[in-house]
């Protein structure tokens, strides 16, 4: 390899280091861009062979060295990369300081680089305001990916739920059933409409809405003569709800479904995409989602009249006349052409992002397979989660807050699972329906649940670092529990 080739490979990989090996693949030394620059300054040309690099022997370590020991070794020698060699002297892996020392976020944005092409197009055409070619194309692309007829790009997933409720006729005094184990954005729009939320418990098999509890809630409403205008079913953390059981119940009571798939773009149930199960589906493109537009959302439906009306309401409900005339209450909920450009670059990589997050989950599961204190969020037969976040529940006696604090001290961001809506002060007094008996599944999952870093741009070393830290934290917590 020439110095020119080496520079090209360094730029291509982004790791900042190459491994110089002999014909049999045995490691000789590391090569950095600094090494190449020094040779050029010394009079070599870009066509000189890489063999001219002959610095002092590179620092290496045996394969299997733990992350903490590797970081200590890098600190001792003031290096940022550490090759790991197997018994034959061949490279088996690489530790990077940025993976071992930098903060690991729960779900960082993952840019591909393609986004800038669409953003640049928006700038060059001076189409910066809401609406525009990128918005139109992004709507078509999301609809195609999710298998629905039409889509309306909006400013947030919350805005999409709000408009969905309006489109289904929800107003003051109406009832809306909603999953309890979810983020507040699923339920807040019910209050925007001065409607009454009725929360429904989760089930162990999916962490999503329990069909038995849903039927009980609908039956209660029927006996009271006050049926809900809609049911909001959430696909939590990327896991589809059990629509094979939920939808027939809603159909029997003739109540339409809003599918909150904010966290579940790219997930599916029996080959059908999340977001396509309800009368209306919604997605979020917040910065931590599987794809992002910085901030944004999408409302999808098989009925184009629904999305057309959503676009109108999202653009201040302006009537189609030559002047500004308004018959309905409208909102400023449309997505900008610039942000839609980011989304177009992201949606093209959706399957890659899903595969990456599922790989993160599998690596955690394999690395921690012998830790009996962890029970991973289930993925029931026929469902495929995008594993937006890797989540688990802990054995009795372990406090997720203690583990989260211990990981934070190591610059690793972990979180509790969502606190159920029926436990939130803002929804105090709202009805909450379980499957019966004394067990509150949603509250139990919240009390024992833990979310781990899950970004699609995490490296294997970063996942191993989190797993190693979590294993140690659980071991210490279990020891303290036994002593107590």
Topology:
Layout: H1 3-13, E1 18-21, E2 27-31, H2 33-41, E3 61-62, H3 67-77, E4 81-85, E5 91-96, H4 97-101, H5 115-124, H6 133-146, E6 150-154, H7 157-167, E7 175-179, H8 188-192, E8 196-200, H9 211-224, E9 230-234, H10 243-252, E10 257-260, E11 268-269, E12 272-273, E13 280-284, E14 297-301, H11 304-314, H12 337-347, H13 350-367, E15 374-376, E16 383-384, E17 390-394, H14 400-409, E18 431-433, H15 441-448, E19 449-452, H16 460-483
Helix pairs in contact: 5-12, 6-12, 7-11, 9-10, 13-16, 14-16
List the keywords.
single chain, 484 residues, alpha/beta, eight-stranded mixed beta sheet, 19 strands
Helix content: 25-40%
Low-confidence spans: none
Q: Over all CA atoms, what is the radius of gyration? A: 26 Å
Strand order of the largest sheet: 6-14-13-10-9-7-8-18
Strand content: 15-25%
Could you tell me the mean pLDDT?
94
| Assembly state | single chain
Largest sheet: 8 strands, mixed
Distance between termini? 62 Å
Number of distinct beta strands:
19
Number of helices: 16
**Structural class, judged by helices and strands?**
alpha/beta
Overall shape: flat
């Amino acid at each position: 390899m020439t110095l020119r080739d080496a520079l090209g490979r360094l730029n291509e990989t982004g790791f900042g280091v190459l491994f110089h090996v002999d014909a049999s693949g045995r490691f000789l030394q590391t090569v950095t861009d600094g090494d190449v620059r020094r040779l050029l300054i010394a009079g070599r040309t870009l066509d000189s062979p890489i063999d001219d690099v002959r610095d002092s022997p590179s620092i290496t370590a045996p394969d299997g060295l733990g992350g903490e020991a590797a970081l200590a070794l890098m600190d001792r020698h003031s290096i940022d990369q550490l090759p790991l060699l197997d018994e034959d002297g061949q490279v088996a892996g690489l530790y990077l300081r940025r993976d071992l020392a930098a903060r690991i976020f729960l779900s960082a944005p993952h840019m591909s680089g393609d986004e800038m092409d669409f953003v640049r197009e928006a700038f060059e055409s001076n189409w910066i305001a809401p609406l525009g070619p990128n918005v139109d194309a992004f709507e078509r692309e999301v609809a195609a990916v999710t298998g629905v007829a039409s889509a309306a790009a909006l400013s947030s997933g919350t805005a999409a739920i709000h408009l969905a409720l309006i489109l289904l006729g929800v107003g003051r005094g109406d009832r809306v059933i909603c999953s309890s184990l979810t983020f507040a954005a699923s339920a807040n729009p019910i209050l925007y409409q001065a409607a009454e939320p009725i929360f429904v418990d989760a089930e162990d098999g999916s962490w999503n809405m329990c069909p038995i509890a849903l039927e009980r809630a609908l039956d209660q409403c029927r006996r009271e003569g006050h049926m809900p205008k809609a049911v909001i079913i959430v696909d939590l953390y990327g896991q589809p709800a059990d629509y094979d059981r939920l939808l027939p119940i809603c159909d029997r009571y003739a109540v339409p479904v809003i599918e909150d798939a904010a966290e579940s773009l790219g997930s599916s149930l029996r080959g059908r995409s999340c977001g396509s199960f309800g009368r209306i589906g919604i997605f979020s493109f917040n910065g931590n989602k599987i794809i992002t537009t910085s901030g944004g959302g999408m409302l999808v439906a098989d009925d184009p009249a629904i999305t057309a009306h959503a676009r109108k309401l999202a653009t201040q409900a302006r009537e189609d006349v030559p002047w500004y005339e308004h018959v309905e209450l409208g909102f400023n909920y449309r997505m900008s052409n610039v942000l839609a450009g980011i989304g177009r670059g992201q949606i093209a990589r959706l399957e890659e992002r899903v595969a990456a997050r599922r790989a993160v989950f599998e690596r955690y599961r394999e690395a921690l397979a012998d830790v009996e204190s962890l029970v991973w969020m289930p993925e029931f037969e026929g469902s495929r989660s995008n594993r937006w976040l890797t989540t688990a529940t802990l054995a009795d006696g372990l406090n997720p807050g203690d583990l989260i604090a211990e990981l934070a001290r190591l610059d690793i961001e972990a979180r509790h699972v969502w606190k159920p809506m029926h436990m939130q002060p803002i929804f105090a007094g709202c009805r909450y329906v379980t499957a019966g008996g004394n067990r509150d599944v949603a509250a139990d999952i919240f009390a024992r649940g833990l979310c781990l870093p899950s970004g699609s741009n995490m490296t294997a070393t970063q996942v191993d670092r989190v797993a190693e830290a979590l294993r140690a934290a659980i071991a210490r917590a279990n020891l303290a529990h036994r002593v107590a």
